[in-house]
Design a protein that fits this description.
It is a single chain. The chain is of the alpha/beta class and 282 residues long. The chain contains 12 helices and 10 strands. The protein has a 6-stranded parallel sheet, with helices on both faces. A two-stranded parallel ribbon has the order 7-9. The chain has a two-stranded parallel sheet with strand order 8-10.
């Protein structure tokens, strides 16, 4: 039975990779700097928890022993880990990269993903780089405003592409099952429909029978709100720049149906995500 190593416990996509790998009867090993079950309550009891710390090379060999496939979340990856994966005979790597890799100019997301992509390419292990957009999970931040009957945001009318975390995880597992088909590809994996904040709030209003207004903020005021809600500065600054670039015509991402092509079913929409997470907004 093939063995999958998931190198994260807290990333939502990683948790779904575990779920869908188990459903496909793959054996799953999960790496964590502190592999204690009480620290990873969302991790199934059917997986093997091992120590894996990208800052500690001594944890690499045992974590990768016997592994066929590796899932790596977005972010910096120790090149020594990639080298050890090669030595250990890993057959395929799925790296959860970013749509921002296909957008001109510098961004935080490019700075953390590009070195990892280059290291994986250079090692020679077949790979899939998943180009996800903004996550539907980010829209959970609207819950507070929906409950307070007023959503405030900057760039409320700008439409962007979003990705379902579940879709990304299913694509990752599809790559484990059909590696020859997806090796060396970097598909954009967004829902084909774009959403603005007005669009999203309109959907929520219809679902909940409410009439919550959207109040447009300046970028400066919106940044203060993002800080209060716990969004890292590098994240909201990158997303603000992305929207400014859309307005300026610098960014022109086209809709795709790559998720449907890979999975054989339509990608999940915001409506699908909302139905699963409606409690956030009630």
């Amino acid at each position: 039975m093939s063995l999958v190593l998931v190198t994260a416990t807290t990333e939502e996509v990683a948790q779904y990779v575990i779920e869908y790998s188990l459903k496909q009867n793959l054996t799953v090993r999960v790496g964590s700097p502190n592999p204690k079950e009480n620290e990873t309550p969302k991790i199934s009891k059917d997986v093997e928890l091992v120590q894996l710390d990208f800052n500690d090379t001594s944890t690499f060999t045992s974590a990768l022993n016997g592994v066929d496939y590796v899932y790596i979340p977005s972010g910096p990856t120790n090149t020594a880990f990639i080298d050890q994966a090669k030595k250990s005979g890993v057959k395929f790597i799925v790296y959860n990269s970013s749509l921002f890799m296909d957008i001109p100019g510098e961004s935080f997301f490019r700075s953390i993903n590009e070195p990892s992509e280059l290291a994986i390419k250079e090692c020679g292990i077949p790979y899939l780089f998943m180009r996800g957009g903004e996550y539907f999970r980010n829209l959970a931040a609207l819950g507070e405003g929906i409950k307070a009957n007023e959503v405030t945001t900057a760039y409320a009318g700008i439409q962007t592409f979003y990705s379902s975390e579940r879709d990304l995880a299913e694509v990752a597992v599809a790559a484990f099952l059909r590696p020859d088909e997806l090796a060396g590809t970097t598909p954009i994996l967004t829902h084909p429909e774009k959403y603005s904040m007005y669009d999203v709030v309109n959907i929520i209003n219809k679902k909940l029978g409410k009439n919550v207004p959207v109040i447009e903020l300046t970028e400066e005021v919106a940044a203060i709100n993002c800080e209060r809600l716990g969004f890292p500065k590098f994240v909201y600054e990158t997303l603000f720049k992305y929207r400014r670039d859309i307005i300026a015509g610098v960014v022109d991402i086209k809709p795709t149906t790559n998720v449907e092509k890979i999975l054989g079913k339509p990608s999940r929409s915001f409506e699908d995500w909302f139905a699963e997470n409606i409690a956030i907004f009630q």
